[in-house]
Amino acid sequence: MSSTMTTSALMKNYQRLPITILKGKGSYVWGDQGVKYLDYTSGIATCSLGHVPDYVQEKISEQLENLWHVSNLYRIPQQEALAEKLASLSCFDQAFFCNSGAEANEAAIKLAKKYAKDHQKPERTEIVTFSNSFHGRTGSTMAATAQTKIHNGFTPLTPGFTYLPFNQQEAIEQIDADKTAGVLLELVQGEGGVHPADVQWVKTLYAYCKEADILFMVDEIQTGIGRTGSLFAYEQYEIEPDAITLAKGLGSGFPIGALLAKNKAAESFSPGTHGSTFGGNPLAATAGLATLEQITDTNFLEGLQEKSLLLTEALTKLAETNSLIKAVRGKGFLIGLEVENKAGVWVEKLREKQILVLTAGENVVRILPPLTTEKEELFTFIGVITAIAADLEEKGE
Ligand SMILES: Cc1ncc(COP(=O)(O)O)c(C=O)c1O
Predict the structure, then answer these.
(1) Given 93, 150, 181, 324, which residue has the most CB atoms within 10 angstroms?
(2) Are 75 and 81 in contact (CB under 8 A)?
(3) Which UniProt keywords are given for this protein, alphabetically ordered (predicted)?
């Protein structure tokens, strides 16, 4: 295997970067040429405890010795323990497990429709989502995603989605309660450019949904499991959603997704209504449980908030003196730098200096450090990006 290896037998749906990563530990990954990179992508907000975290590795290894998979026709103690842990840490009562973010959102969409039917409102079949959102790539979640660039080439879209403007008061006035089963939104839009939802807007939307008995569902696939500085982003909005979806950070890189819901909604998933072969199998549930144990360990989230403040303050200071940086947005370790030029240029320059970051659209550099990153690593990152910003400004690139 090498960086130049042919990928001809793979479909070309991913635009791959010119490096091949073979090993990871903590905040670092190593390429096939032996080059070490500081990984501030975290596998797109997934390896939140860094790469191959010791405790999770230990727990998965133990589980590998005993049982990998058993179907959901049987009780799975690891899955029950994970559900209980999630319920004890949130405002939710029940969990459904699956394998990815899109699959978790599929479950949420189905739950909202079923809830409406079960509550004598069969005409409520629509799900409201918001401009610039991202909810996944499957049929329904692509249709839920309110971005035409994601839809291109795939029409007709799955019907049943209404798109309203994000962060706009008028959106709430436009909801048709007679037709709407649920609302699905991100509290910090990740793929859409790192845009936090306005607290007052969310509270008003939430109050409206509560009053109208429309399920209020938050897509926490990118924001959840500590990424924004609290275990769940909804905690920062003083709301208690009816349901949230999780994936990415829940398994430290082991594939797992989840839908959490309050009893009143969860009861609509009666036996036979929904399922997933691999969902919450012993290995995945073990990874989830071990990850949560680490993230909810004493002082973990406080430490993260402190580190996040350090990084955002440094970036904000940089933005004040560098004309290429228009804005610094985000929460916790989900940070976006809106730049005048192409975000891809910054990603490339940082990669040349052995630091990996992402884009979020054309003009946003997305920075997703592992939640475990050390202050020293943050100082390295700040130093390198400051030098790159000065260089790009000087050259007018
Ligand atoms: C907010 C949000 N929802 C859903 C998804 C889809 O998750 P997955 O790629 O695991 O299907 C993503 C992935 O980036 C996401 O960021």
Answers:
(1) 181
(2) no
(3) Amino-acid biosynthesis, Aminotransferase, Arginine biosynthesis, Cytoplasm, Pyridoxal phosphate, Transferase
Peptide bond into 282 cis (omega under 30): no
Does 1 have pLDDT greater than 90? Answer: no
Which CATH code for domain 54-295?
Answer: 3.40.640.10
Residues with CB under 6 A from ligand 1: 44, 100-102, 105, 134-136, 186, 190-191, 219, 221-222, 247
Annotated binding residues for pyridoxal 5'-phosphate:
101-102, 134, 219-222, 277
* Residue with CA at minimum distance from ligand 1 atom 7: 101
Q: What distance in angstroms lies between residue 135's CA and the mean position of ligand 1's atoms?
A: 6
Question: What is the end-to-end Cα distance of the chain in Å, rounded?
Answer: 34
Q: CA 226 to CA 62: how far, in whole Å?
A: 25
pLDDT at 5 over 60: no
Residue 188, SS3 per DSSP: strand
Enter the tokens of residue 387: 């030098």
Close Cβ partners of 233 (under 8 Å, ≥ 6 residues apart): 187, 188, 218, 220, 223, 224, 227, 331
CATH node for 21-53+300-395: 3.90.1150.10
Which atom of ligand 1 is the closest one to the Cα of 133? 1
Residue 155 has pLDDT above 60, yes or no: yes
CA of 248 to the centre of ligand 1 (A): 8
- Ligand 1 centroid to Cα of residue 272, in Å, is 26
If you write DSSP's letter for every residue of 348-395 in order, what string do you get? HHHHHTTEE-EESSTTEEEE---TT--HHHHHHHHHHHHHHHHHHHHH
pLDDT, one tens digit per residue, over 97-123 is: 999 999 999 999 999 999 999 999 999
- Segment 24-58, tens digit of pLDDT: 999 999 999 999 999 999 999 999 999 999 999 99
